[in-house]
Amino acid sequence: ISKVARIVSIKGQKNITALRANVARLISDSRDGLSRVARIVRDLKDFSRAEKGDWQWADLHQGFDSTLNIAWNEIKYRCTLDRAYGEIPRVWCVPSQINQVFLNLIMNAAQAISQKGSITIRTGQSGDEIFFAVADTGGGIPAENFHHLFEPFFTTKPVGQGTGLGLSIAYGIVQSHHGRIAVESEVGRGATFTVWLPVKPKGTLPGQANDDKDSG
User: Fold this and answer.
1) Which of residues 7 and 150 earns the better pLDDT score?
2) Rounded distance, CA 55 to CA 173, Å?
3) Fewest CB within a 10 Å sphere: which of 11, 58, 140, 184?
4) Contact indicator for 107, 75 with CB cutoff of 8 Å
């Protein structure tokens, strides 16, 4: 058999045309994926540089209720909701950013519930700090994932169901407010994310120089 015939035979066996088409599609998909990642990273950087002048005394309960009204259509078919609000003072913060933290925790809790479950929101005060906690009855978080929860792009959700940025963004906002996030979870028994924030930071208030007015 001639070399040309052998090449033609091998080409037919390996379906080179189909492979070439697949490679082109894979390259195109990879480029699209890289572009999407680049856009997400840009958006994350833009978010981290969000307007810092909008600091004010805020009623967090009012903000949470507004946020729940927006999110309710996304979660009402899989969750019941219990609001166990305590007594908390107004907090010096950027309300839109704290609402973003709250929204991310609510959506994370809802997505952790595969069929039917419940979400409980608690608020309260301890000393100079307030807290809000979002607890779900979802599948819980394996211990090996705890150290990765707030890393950008880390997600346990199926492909196409989340970017892995929600908790990372929430963590960054809480840090910028001199607060912290605590996580408790047991596999099969749900998870609780608790955000602690100072009623007002020590020293000069962010966004308002030399302002020492009472939070009311």
Assistant:
1) 150
2) 13
3) 11
4) yes
